[in-house]
Design a protein that fits this description.
The protein has about 1050 residues and is an alpha+beta fold. It is built from 39 helices and 31 strands. The chain has four domains: about 180 residues, YVTN repeat-like/Quinoprotein amine dehydrogenase (Methylamine Dehydrogenase, Chain H), CATH 2.130.10.10; about 190 residues, YVTN repeat-like/Quinoprotein amine dehydrogenase (Methylamine Dehydrogenase, Chain H); about 240 residues, no CATH class; about 150 residues. A hairpin with a 3-residue loop joins strand 30 and strand 31. The two termini are about 95 Å apart.
């Protein structure tokens, strides 16, 4: 996530004396006060005000008590003091620090301890030079040595002998000083000024620093920084080891990095050395460059090492990418640069403190421009320092502050305000929840490095993110639903009687605390990149993700906060009644029924994550109270519930508008789009609309309050749920057509828009509006909804008039229309295939017949006809004709929907008639196989033979053989023969065979329809045990079959 550069106030106060000074106006009479402040690594702060120094330990804190400051009077001076001429130091943290101060004129004052009543003074003879700074040089057992520098580049060694102060006072020899005499380099600076065209005036010294492990062979230990020159000196040898002019290769290195060339070498850009620090076995310079005709300064970091200096080059250069609005103006010729300090808290972090802002660079791009973070100061800067891997700035109001990167939107004072509350969260030691709590607390306390380390350990311990997700949700719910830890009314001993000394904490304040905690949770998740990790469905959350649940908690928290604010300002009896009912349930659950000091609002506001219970509770109250009310009273009641609903809507929208909030996809299942909540919103909408429609009157105010609910419901629905929305339709039918159309456009209810165009607009205007909507909602697929409207309403001509790939793609998915477009384009082959495809899935035989007829026409219109395909279609049409021949009674019983039947089903239906007519129809239906491609396949012929044998078998079985058997059993042989012969002539078998000869079908088809052998038919004769009857039947069957065959052969011969 993005990090902001923050000014983070430390949990410490200025001493009372310092606060008094800082509370004074900035201008005191006609002279401004000299105010400056700095810090020591041992935890001491020192504040300079004119000629007085205040020193205190800013790390030692006592709650509610400002730290004590030691007030030290500095030597008298006629010039302004500089904080750089004061050194506060202590080698042992158990004792108070010592202070060394030198006035601008050279009067030294030393306090061996800031508690010493009498300091030691010594006058230094500086030859009328002005003191620039005093810095520690070395600290040995018997002596502490300092380096004093003057503004003109003279250096003095100050020795403070410790043994002289052990007895509490300093002897005359306790402090000594001597000139070091390394300012002879002024000749060098004058020569470089002549060579590079600089001013002849000797440059002022701006800074000195003691260095170690630099130019070791020459024992270099001091660096003197001038406006454009650096001198690397040896105090021990009292000489200049190396002099570096920034206008030489340093400027060239900068310009090369900036990809700039100088047309005139005699007109080089002005370069200033802003600050120098020791860094990575070398010197890190902050330089400012005034380019030709540029009104502002450009800055760069230049790193020098002993090796690079020997090669007359920079080790690396990076440009400081300060945007134009933050840049400093180029100073005038006589004007120096403002005080700018460079710090390196960590090896990869560079902090630049300007008078009005602080700049941070992380992991700089060597040889290029590095982007930087910038924060402007909102109050005067008193000083800066670098202690414990942080850069500190001291501000007039906020005091000592760390400069640090924190997640965007991080509440700086969170830990200071809620540390005690956070530490009170219950968690078993060594549990996973305790680990999560620890990481979260480290994050909230701004200890980000330690938090990252513990987070990595925690993840390894969890193994996967599912359990972590559960604990994060559990922790968040605990923070939102827990008893307010700072409200004593919830504690034991205060539940029965109200103690006047106990002050209650406002519910609004408690909810603000919960908002702060919830916001910190979202920062925590975003910082550690957990959004994606928690965005997976889980059984624990009923198929929802942990992220969705956390987002839901945020919406409920804001809904609770705004609802509490609403009921504190408005009189809403129905809502109050609902809250009281819920509060009683919560009070009972908490077993706090004896508590008399907490209110219903207290209990209700505690259960943040159960806020949604208020909605059905309020609906129940409304339902109870609306009975017997007048219309005016009903309007009042509706208005109260609408106020609650609209508050919930505003709260959820406000939460979603926050940049730090957890934003989830629209289709995620959340409380506001749950069936339960939307049902209540829908009921309320319809209830009020029914009320408005029941008696027309001036209900504009009620409609206006109803509109947000309508929008909310629509916003929670999917695109297809909103299409032809019943909510929008109610406004439309009520006469609020303009409002309905605005809603339809906002929520993409294209069906209502199209309906309006067709019902209310004349042809020309309708066409214009539809084209306009196509363009307006191009990305929302308006045209697809329009095509669907055409299809559903039978406006086929309007649909076919549309042009373009979109309509072609639509038609390709709707074959029942697409074939018409194919016919129009003379694409008969495509039309044929489409029609055949539709026909095979047609729901009834009539539609299939129509589609196959059209397919046959399309096939006949093709340039290259396929006779086989045409025959196949024809055959299928014939099969449908056979279906039409089925007896109406049988068709109604077995196929009431007139679905297309297969040949097997048609044959079965015809056989079901159980008469000669049906059997003949079944036989003739078999000709569809003979005429089809299937007849040429083994499967087809097998089916044909199976059905043919079934038909002939059914014909034989249709006779009542048992009845005739009983009848002839009582007769003589001659009578029985005559009676059986007469019976055979009356059977369906006889009738079929007689009519079969005369049936008008091709003779070859007739032959195919006859059984290949009568043996199979003889096997099904039921009177096999009756020898006489069996003989007569077989003779009758063979004789007639032979007669049929001879008749067919004769017919074939005649045709030949």
């Amino acid at each position: 996530m993005s990090l902001d550069l923050c000014i983070d106030p430390l949990d410490c106060e200025f001493p009372g004396l310092v606060n008094e000074i800082l509370s004074l106006p900035t201008d005191n009479n006609d002279r401004s006060m000299v105010l400056a402040c700095s810090l020591t690594i041992e935890g001491y702060a020192y504040f300079l005000c004119n000629k007085v120094l205040y020193v205190w330990n800013y790390l030692t804190k006592e709650k509610g008590v400002n730290p004590h400051a030691f007030r030290l009077n500095l030597p008298t001076t006629g010039l302004n003091y500089s904080i750089n001429s004061i050194v506060v130091a202590n080698k042992d943290s158990t004792v108070l620090p010592s202070v060394l101060a030198v006035s601008p004129e050279g009067l030294l004052r030393y306090w061996p301890s800031i508690s010493a009543s009498v300091p030691k003074d010594k006058e230094l003879s500086l030859n009328n030079e002005v003191v620039l700074s005093v810095i520690p040089y070395s600290d040995e057992d018997h002596v502490t040595r300092y380096i004093l520098a003057t503004t003109t580049g003279s250096f003095y060694n100050i020795d403070i002998f410790k043994e002289h102060f052990l007895q509490g006072s300093g002897a005359d020899g306790a402090i000594t000083y001597r000139s070091i005499g390394i300012n002879s380099s002024s000749l060098t600076r004058r020569m470089t000024s002549v060579i590079f065209g600089g001013a002849s005036k000797k440059q002022s010294l701006i800074k000195t620093l003691v260095v170690k492990n630099f130019f070791v062979s020459n024992e270099a230990d001091l660096v003197a920084v001038y406006q454009t020159t650096i001198e690397i000196c040896s105090v021990k040898k009292a000489n200049v080891v190396k002099s570096i002019d920034a206008r030489d290769y340093i400027l060239r290195s900068y310009l090369k990095t900036a990809n700039e060339t100088i047309a005139d070498p005699k007109r080089l850009p002005n370069i200033y050395i802003a600050d120098v620090v020791q860094y990575n076995n070398g010197l890190l310079m902050l330089i400012a460059v005034a380019k030709q005709r540029a009104p502002t300064l450009s800055f760069g970091l230049v790193h020098l090492t002993e090796e690079s200096i020997g090669d007359n080059s920079a080790n690396f250069v990076t440009l400081v990418g300060i945007s134009e609005q933050y840049r400093l103006p180029v100073p005038s010729a006589e004007q120096p640069l403002p005080k700018i300090n460079l710090y390196t808290p960590t090896p990869t972090n560079f902090i630049i403190v300007f008078p009005t802002m602080v700049v941070s660079l992380e992991n700089v791009d060597v040889g290029a421009e590095s982007l930087c973070d910038i924060t402007k100061f909102k109050e005067p800067l008193l000083g800066s320092a670098c202690v414990n891997q942080f850069c500190q700035v001291i501000l007039r109001k906020n005091g000592i502050c760390d400069v640090r990167h924190l997640p965007s939107g991080f509440e700086i004072n969170f830990w200071q305000k809620y540390k005690t509350q956070m530490e009170s969260i219950d968690a078993e030691s060594n549990s996973h929840f305790a680990m999560l709590k620890k990481v979260f607390m480290l994050f909230a306390s701004k200890n980000l490095p330690e938090a990252r380390s513990k987070f990595a350990q925690m993840i390894r311990s969890f193994g996967d993110y599912n359990e972590l997700a559960e604990f994060i949700v559990l922790m968040t719910k605990g923070l939102l639903d827990r008893i307010p830890p700072n409200d004593p009314r919830w504690k034991e001993g205060t539940q029965r009687t109200r103690d006047p000394s106990i002050r209650s904490i406002s519910i609004a304040s408690q909810l603000e605390d919960k908002v702060a905690h919830y916001k910190m949770v979202t920062m925590f998740l975003r910082y550690f990149g957990l959004f994606d990790r928690l965005n997976h469905p889980s059984k624990t959350f009923n198929g929802r993700s942990a992220l969705t649940v956390l987002s839901e908690y945020g919406e409920k928290l804001y809904a609770m906060s705004i609802t509490v604010a609403m009921i504190s300002q408005l009189t809403l009896p129905s809502v109050e009644t609902a809250i009281k009912r819920l509060a009683m349930e919560i009070q009972t659950q908490l077993r706090m029924t004896d508590n008399t000091v907490l209110t219903a609002h207290d209990y209700f506001a505690k259960e943040v994550t159960s806020f949604e219970a208020l909605i059905p509770a309020a609906m129940r109250v409304q339902q109870e109270e609306i009975k017997g009310k007048s219309r005016t009273e009903q309007i009042t009641l509706f208005t109260e519930i609408l106020s609650l609903y609209n508050t919930v809507i505003d709260a959820t929208q406000f939460y979603k508008s926050q940049e730090w909030a957890i934003h989830i996809k629209r289709d995620e299942q959340i409380w506001t789009n749950s069936q339960q909540i939307l049902t209540h919103f829908n009921r309320q909408f319809n209830l009020i609309f029914d009320f408005i429609e029941s008696e027309r009157g001036n209900y504009e105010g009620l409609l206006k309050k109803l509109l947000p609910i309508a929008k909310f419901i629509l916003s929670q629905q999917s695109l297809y749920q909103r299409n032809r929305s019943s909510i929008i339709q109610r406004f439309y039918r009520f006469g609020k057509i303009d409002l309905a159309l605005k809603l339809a456009e906002e929520f993409l209810d294209f069906a209502t828009i199209i309906q309006h165009c067709y019902e209310k607009l004349p042809d020309v205007e309708r066409q214009y509006q539809l084209e306009k909507y196509k363009t307006q909602f191009k990305n929302e697929n308006f045209d697809i909804f329009l095509f669907e409207y055409y299809r559903e309403h039978g406006l086929i001509n309007d649909l076919l008039e549309q042009q373009g790939d979109r309509v072609e793609d639509f038609l390709s998915k709707h074959d029942e229309i697409n074939w018409i477009r194919n016919i129009e384009r003379r694409e008969y082959g495509k039309a044929k295939e489409t029609l055949r495809s539709i026909a095979y899935s047609a729901p009834n035989a009539e539609r299939k017949k129509t589609l196959l007829s059209l397919a046959k026409l399309a096939a006949l219109c093709e340039d290259e006809q396929n006779p086989e395909e045409i025959a196949q279609i024809t055959n299928n049409l014939i099969l449908l004709q056979h279906q039409e021949q089925i007896s109406p009674d049988i068709a109604k019983a077995m196929n009431p929907t007139n679905a297309p039947l297969s040949l097997e089903e048609i044959v079965a239906a015809d056989i079901g008639e159980n008469n000669a007519e049906g059997f003949l129809k079944a036989l003739i239906a078999l000709t569809t196989i003979i005429d089809s491609r299937e007849s040429k396949t083994d499967i087809g012929m097998e089916t044909f033979e199976k059905l043919r044998n079934r038909i002939w078998t059914s014909i034989i079985k249709s006779a009542d053989w048992n009845l005739i058997a009983k009848e002839v059993s009582k007769l003589s042989n001659e009578e029985a023969y005559e009676r059986f012969t007469q019976f055979l002539l009356t059977t369906s078998l006889s009738d079929v065979m007689q009519r079969f000869i005369d049936y008008s079908i091709p003779p070859d088809c007739k032959l195919e329809l006859l059984p290949k052998s009568t043996a199979a038919l003889k096997d099904v004769f039921p009177l096999k045990n009756n020898e006489h009857a069996r003989h007569l039947f077989e003779e009758f069957l063979d004789t007639n079959m032979e007669h049929i065959v001879r008749s067919i052969e004769k017919e074939v011969a005649q045709e030949a």
